[in-house]
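Posting this for the archive.
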Amino acid sequence: MRTYLDLFKILGVRRLVVSSLPGRLAYGMIALATFFFVQEKTGSITLAGLATGVETISSSLTAGFRGNLIDKWGQTKPLSIFVPSWVALVLILSSVETPTAIVVVSGLIGLASPPVNLSTRPLWRVLVGSENLRTAYALDTTITSSTIVAGPVLATAIAIPIGGSAALWATAALMAIGGIAIIQMPASRNWKPEPTQGNSMALLRNTQFQILAVEGLVFGIAWGMLEISIPAFSTLQGTPGLSAPLLATLAGASIVGGLLIGSRKSVTTPLQGFKWASFAASLAAIPLVFTEPGWSMAIVLGLLGLGMGFAQVFHWEVLEAVRPQGTATSAQAWLWAVEGSMLAVGTALGGYLVENVSPQSALLGVSIGLIISTVYIWFYAAARLPQADKPLSESQIIDVLADLESPAE
C-alpha cells in the first residue's frame, strides 16, 4: 500500500487517475444502459441483446484502427473526434424507437468508441518512469476493473427507477467529462507516438497467435452469452435490479483473482497456469445451469469470476511469451478483435436463447463453451506453445500488466 501512496505523490499521477475515471465508468455503463433502454422501449430481450452485441462487435473490430490513429496523430486529435461523436450518438440512441434505428445507432456507437485506455496507458511511462512502471500498471488495471464493477451497478441504479434513457444520458455525460479532462492534460497533449510496432500481417500468419485466436473465439462466444444471460434472466424473472449485483459479483471476483495472481511470485509457467485456471473456471461454470438470479447464481458467479481472474492474467502471459518480437500492441489489439467480435455474437445468441428457448439453455451454452475452450487448451494448444512453458522475465511481466486493459476502449 505504501508503494501506491508514494506513486500518487508523483506530479501528474492524481490528475491522470481522476481524468480517466469518468470515461472508464461510462464504458462500464454503456452495455447495460443500452440493454435496459432497448428492452424498455421495445419489450424485446432479443433486440436488446442484439443492440448490445452490435455495439461490442463494431467497437472490437475497429480497435486496431483507433490504435493506428493514435500512433499516427498522437492523442489529442483522435480523442477530439471520437469523444464528441460517441457522446452525440449515445444521446441519439436515447431518442430512437424503431428496431432498425436502434441497431444502426448502436453499431455507430461502437465505431466511435473513444480510445480512453489506449490514451491513458502510454502516459504512465511518461509520468512515473520505468522504475515505478509495474506498480503504476497494477494500479491502473485495478482502477479499470473497478469501473467495470461500478458501471453496471450505476447504470441499473439509474435505469430501474428513472428509465433507460436516463442511464444513457448519464453515460454520455460521464464520457464527455472524462474525454475533455484527458484532452486538456498537458501530458496527453504533449505525448508523441512511438515508432510503429511490428507488422500485423506477420502476426496474423504466426501459428502460435492463430492458436490463441481460436481459443479466444470459443471463449468470446461463451462469455458473451453469460453477460447477456444474467440481465435477461433477471428481467424475465421480474427482478431486473438483480442484474447489477450479479454482474458486480462476477466482475469483483475476477478483480480479486487477477490481483491475487498478479501479485504472486513466479511459481508456475504461463502455460501451466493458463491450463489449470481455465480448468477451474470451466468446472465452476458447470452448476450455472441449475441456478436462478439470487444467492445460488451469485455463489457460482463468484467462483467463476475468481477462476477467470486467474485465467486472464495467465492468458496475457502466454500471449507475451509466444507473440512475435515487436508486436506488443498489435497482438493484443488483434486478439481483442477476435474475442470482442465473438463476444458480440454470444451476446446476440444468448439473448435469443433466453427469450425463445429458456434462460437455462443460454447458461448451459456458457458452460459448454468454457469446457470446449479448456479441452482445446489442454489437448491441442498446450503442445504447440512450448515458449509459454517457461517463466517470464521482469520486463515481460510489466508488459503483461500493461496489456490487461481492453484496446477497444
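Residues 122 and 172 are 25 Å apart (CA to CA). The chain is about 80% helix and 0% strand.
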